[in-house]
Write a structure and sequence with these properties.
The complex is a heterodimer of chains A (about 1000) and B (about 425). Chain A has about 1000 residues and is an alpha+beta fold. Chain A contains 24 helices and 50 strands. The chains are: A alpha+beta (about 1000), B alpha/beta (about 425).
Chain lengths: ~1000, ~425
Amino acid sequence: MTRQQFRLAEGGRIDRDRPLSFRFNGRAYQGYAGDTLASALLANGVHLVGRSFKYHRPRGIFSAGAEEPNAIIQLETGTRSQPDLRATQVELYEGLRAKSVNCWPSVRFDLAAINSRLAPLFPAGFYYKTFMWPGRAWHLYEAVIRRMAGLGVAPTGPDPDRYEKTHIHADVLVAGGGPAGLAAALAAARAGARVILADEQSAFGGQLLGNGESVDGKPGAEWAAAAAAELVDLPDATLLPRTTVIGYFDDNYLTLCERVTDHLGPAAPPELPRQRLWKVRARHVVLATGAHERPLVFQGNDRPGVMLASAAQSYVNRYAVRPGRRAVLCANNDSAYRAALDLQEAGVEIAAIADLRPAPDGAGVEAARAQGIEVLPGQAVVATQGGRHLTGVEIAPLSEDGNALAGPSSTEKCDLLCVSGAWNPAVHLFSQSRGKLRYDEGLACFVPGRSVQAERSAGACNGRFALADCLAEGHAAGTAAAAAAGHGDDSGPVPKAEAEPVGAIRAVPCVPSRSGRANKHFLDLQNDVTAADVALAAREGYRSVEHTKRYTTLGMGTDQGKTSNVTGLSVLAAALGRPVPEVGTTTFRPPYTPVTFGTIAGRDVGDLADPARMTPMHHWHVQVGAVFEDVGQWKRPYCYPRQGESKREAVDRECLAVRNAVGILDASTLGKIDIQGPDARKLLNMVYTNAWNKLEVGRCRYGLMLGEDGMIFDDGVTSRLAEDRYLMTTTTGNAARVLEWLEEWLQTEWPDWRVYCTSVTEQFATMTICGPKARDLLAELVDGLDLDPAAFPFMSWRAAAVAGVPARIFKISFTGENSYEINVPANYGMAVWSAIMNAGEKYGITPFGTEAMHVLRAEKGFIMVGQETDGTITPHDLGMDWAVSKTKDFLGKRSLARADTTRAGRKQLVGLLTEAADAVLPEGGQIVSELARKPPMDMIGHVTSSYYSAALGRSIALALIKGGRDRGGETVHVPLLDGSSIAATVTEPRFYDSEGERLRG
Amino acid sequence: MYSLPSFATLGAMHKYSIFSLARNAMGYHEDWTEAWRSPAPQPSYDVVIVGGGGHGLATAYYLAKEHGVTKVAVLEKGWLGGGNTGRNTTIIRSNYLWDESAALYEKSLQLYEGLSRDLNYNIMLSQRGVLNLAHTEHDLKEMSRRVHAIRLNGIDSDILSPAQVKAAVPIIDISPDARYPVLGASLQKRGGVARHDAVAWGFARAADSRGVDIIQNCEVTGIRRQGGRVEGVDTTRGFIAAKKVGVVVAGHASVLADMAGLRLPIESHPLQALVSEPIKPVIHTVVMSNTVHVYVSQSDKGELVIGAGIDAYTSYAQRGSFHIIEGQMGALIELFPIFSRLRMLRQWGGIVDVCPDASPIISKTPVEGLYFNCGWGTGGFKATPGSGWVFAHTVANDAPHPIAAPFALDRFTTGALIDEHGAAAVAH
C-alpha cells in the first residue's frame, strides 16, 4: 500500500477518520471517505489512468466532474462490472477495484501506442480513403479494426441488481444544486411551491464545494449545507443528491437518474435499488446546471499532468489533494487566478501564469502578483514536454492577432499545467428543451437565447459566472417560477456574495505552434481529434458542423464533447473564416450523461417484461405437463404430451380423441367484446362483410372483418345476447386490435351512434368440449336444458347452469365436431373445468391444445386468420363469397371492386395432397409449377397450413396458389431448403366430413 | 494555416488510396481537395433532385453515370445526409418476402457490394450477417415462408436452430423459459451494416466529379407548374428552372407533394434509435427481432447501435421519445442480459414516411416531369443505391425501371399493394 504522498495535511471535504482501501490496475492504494476515485488516485500521485481511443496516447485526469474525457475506467469485475465510468464521478468505497480500459498489456506500456507513430497516415476520415483493395477485402481490414474497438468490457452475466422508477409532479424542478440552483430552490420552496432539487453530486453546493468562495459571510460549502438543511425542513421540497437530470422532453417532462447505491459498493443494502429513474412533470423548470471550463488548444495539450484549472482547484480545496508539485497555468481569463492562489496556498509551487491577454488586470491578477506569482501577459503555452507525465512546457508570446508566435519561447519545468480557456455554460438541457442558443461574443460561448418551454436558466448555465450574480439570478428564477406555478412571492432574502468584477477574455481558437501545424493540438481528448483534423474536414468540404463532427468524430466520445465541442467549432469557424454563431452547434441529444439500460427498463425485466397472460385454468395445464406456446401475450397449451410421448404423438392422440370421443380445449384466450346499444347491429353490419339484420336473439353468426384495403383482418363468431346486445369473439392475437378498430370508427366516423364496446376477454373462462360424445357429457352437467339439435341447433347459444355455475353455452364449432363453448365467470373457470374433467372421465375426455385444434380445423378446411390470410387475401380468394353481402355496405367493400382485387390469377385457397401420404409439406413452403435445377424459380403460391392428419392417416395441406381453383388435379412442387422437393396434387380445401354432418350434432 | 484551397476543378478529383494517403501524409494532409464543390445554383438544369440524402445523391450519381444526364442539381435544405441517411441504424439486407421487394432490395445489395470501389470511397460495407429471430410458433411459420421464398428468388437465406443462434451470438439468452424464447432465426449472410454518412458522402463526391451541382442550405419552397408540366422549383436561393424534378425527401414527402398539388398516401412518424457507450465487441452480426421490436448491431467503434419502434402518433419532430425506448429496453435486456449495466450514450429520432402497404413509392406523377421517390418507412438505408439506380432510370427515360414499376403510385388505386407489414402480423 502506498502512502497518500500528495494528500494535504488538513482541509477538504474528506473524512480522514475513514480511510478506504482500493485497487487500481492491480495495485493497492488508500483514500478517504469523500474521495472520488480520481481524487484518491491523485492523492497517491497516479495521473496516468488511460489511453486515448485512436492513437493510444497516455492520458491523465483532466477534470473533476462529468465532463471528463480521459479517466475512463472499468469498475469491478464479473456480473457487477461496469465499463466506461469516469473516475472523476466514481465515489470511493472500501474495497473498490478499478482498472484502465482500452490498453494492453498495461496503461503504462500499451502496444497499440504504435498507432501514435502511424498518426501521419491516420488523419480524420482516413478510413474512407483506403482499405478498398482488393475487391471485397474490407472485412479483413475490419477484423483488425474491430480488435481495437470499444473502451471497457461488458459484464460477464445477467445483472444482479434492481432498478426502480418513480413518477412525480412538481411545481418547480431545479436542475443543479450549485449556488444558483440552491438559491432558486430556496426561493421557490419558501414561497410554498412543491420543489424538486436534483444534483449529480453527493453533496449540494456545486462549485462552492471546491472554490472556497463565501456566501452570506459563510464559507460556501457551509452555506450550501445550511441551504440544503432548510430545504429538507420545508414541507414540499424533495432533495435528490446523486441525481442527474438527463433528459428534457416536450411539455416539461424530464427524466432524472438517481444513483442510489453506487457509492456504497458491495455494502449496498440489498433492499435498495441500484439506480432509480425519476420521471418528472414540472410546471416550471429552473435550469441551474452550471458551466464547464473550456480547455485551451495548443501543441501537446493532451499529456497527463495537463488539467483544467478549476479541476485543480477542486482537488486542492474539496479533496485536499495536490495535483502536482510545480505548476504552470495558462489562461485567457480571470478565473484561473483563484485556482493559482489556492494551489499556491496548498503548497504547489506556481512557476508562472501565461495569460493570453496582453494586459490582464483585475483583482485576481493583482492578488496573484501580490503573492509573487509571475504573470506573463500576452503569452501562452505553445508546447509541452514529457512522456507518460508532463515534465515541462514551452511558453511564448503571441502575435497581436493570435495566429503566430511573436518571439522566442522559454521553457518552464513543471509537473502540472492548469489550463483555462474561460467557460461554457452547460446548455445541454436547455437545448434538449428546444430552446434556441445565442452566441455571446464577450464570453465567447453559447448561452440560452429564446425559451420554448416553461423554463428559465439561472447562474453559470446562463452565462453569469460571478457568484453574486448566480445567487441573485437563481433567487429571481426560483421566485418567478413559484409565482408562475401559482404561489406567492414570499421567497425570503437574496443570498449575498462579494461582487467581484470579471475581466474580459481573449478568445484564441488555436494557439499557434512553432511549426505552424496543429496535428498535436487536441480538441477531443478521448477520440484524438486535433485542430488539424478539423481544418482537414473544412478543407475537404465537410463544413457543416455536423459534417465536421461526423467526419472527424469530434465530440462523439463518451463525454459527448463537453470539453471539445465549442473549442472544436471555434477552430472550424476560424478555418472557414466565418463567425462562430454562423457555424452553429451540433444538436444536444439526451441523455446529458450516459444512463444504464437497466435504469431505463426499470422493473420491466424478467417475469415483468411484458407480463404473460394466463387463463384461469393455466395451473392445471402446467400440472398435467402441457407444452405451452406464446400467442400474443398469452400462454396457451400447445399439446399435452404424456410420459414418453413426442409432441407429434400427443397431437395425433388428441386429434383422434376429438374425432372419436370427446376433447376439451381451453379457449379462454379468444377475444370477447360485449357490444351494447341501439346501434349495435348497425355497427356489426359495417364491420362485418355479411348481413346481421336477421340474426335473432339466441343465435350466433360467423363473420369476416376487412381492412379498408378489402383484405381480411379478423374473423370470429358473434352472438346476439339480447335485443340491443351482442357478444363478439375475435382471434386471440387480434383482440385488442379489433377493439381499437371498432373504437376508431365509432369515435372518428360515427360518434353519434349509440353503441358501446367493452372487452370482456378476461371476465370469462371458456372451455370447448367437442366430439361425438360431447353432448352426452354436457347432458350430465346441465339441468333443464334440452340438448337435442332441434331445440339447441348449431349456431345458437343458451344460458344454463353448468356444474351449478351460470354459463353461456355456444353451440359453434371450429373442429368440425359437435361442439359446445362453455363460458363461465372467470373465477369459476377452474371449478367448472374440474367438473367437466371428472364427468368426462368415462367418455375418455382428452384435453387438447392449439396444435390439435389447428389440425382439426385444417381437416375441415376452416381458415385461420394469420395463416391462410396475411393481409393480402380477400374473402373471394378463400372461396368465402358466401360470407360477403352483395347488397349492404361494409368496411372494405369498395376496395373489393378495385382492378387488382377482381383480376384473374389471384392466389386462391386450395388443398394439397402430397404424393407420398406420409410426407408433410413445410408450412411456408413455396410452390412452383415446374422445378428448375436451381433458383430462381417462379413461385405460384405457398403452403399456408400443413399437418399429418391422424384421422385420415395421411398428410394434408392448405395452400394459396395463383388461379388455384382452376388447377384442381394439377401436380405442383414444393422445393425444400436442402435442395430436394415434394410433389403434391391440388385438391378442394376440405378433407374431412365435407358435408358438415358431424358438427350439427 | 486555415486558408482554404481553391475549388477543385471538375474531373480532377483526388483518387483515394493508401498511396494517396501516404503521399499526402508527407504534406501533412494540407493538399487534399474538396470532396465536392459548393457551387452557386445555375438558373436552369435538366434535372433537379430535391433532397440531398443518400437516395437523392445516388439518383444524381446514376443519372450522370448510367444515363449521361449531367446537368443535374441536388438541392438540400440543410446539410448532406442530415435526414434519415444520418439517423438510421445502418442495416443492409435483402431478405424480403415478395418478389417485387426482393428484386429491389437485392439490386441494392448487389450495388452495395461494389460500391466502395465504384465510388472510390470506403463505405465500409460489413457483411457480418443479419439474424432475424423467431420467438413464437407463428414466427417460425413466417420465417419458413420467408426463407423458402427468398431462396427461390435466388437470394441467400438460412434457418438457424437456437443452438446455432447461440453459437453466432453467444451473449443472447436462448433459455426456454425466457419471456420470448428464441425458437430459431433466419440468417442472411450477405446482410450487414455500412457507414451511413460515408454512403452519402461517397455518392456526393462521385456525383460531383461527374458534374452534378450539389447545393446545400437551399430549401425548396415551391414547385412551379405550367399546363400540367413541371417548370422548376422555387427555393430559398431563388427560382431554379428544371425540365424534370425528382423529389427524394424522406420524412417530408407529403409536404413537397402538397407544393405540387398532390396528395400522397403517406403518414409520417418519428422512429427512435440510440447508441451505447463503446465497449469491446460482444456481438458480431446484426440481430433483429420483430416480436420484441428491437434490433441491434455493434459498430466498429464499439457502440451498440439499437433501433427501437416508431411513435404511434404522426409528427415531424426529429427528436427522441423516451417512452418508446423505455418500453423496449426490457425486451432488449431479456434478449441480452449483459446489456443491463451498459449505458445509453445518445438517443435520437428520425421521421419515417410510411405507406399503407409499408412499401415505397418510386413513381411518375400526374404532373409531367415530376417524379417522387418516397415512403421507405423504416428501411430506406439498405435501399439507397438500388433506389437511386431505378429512380435515375425512371427520371431519365420518363418511364419506370422494370424493378420500380410495381412501386408506382397507381397501385393505391388498383389495389396491387406490396404488403410488407411482415406478412401476417397476427396469431390465432
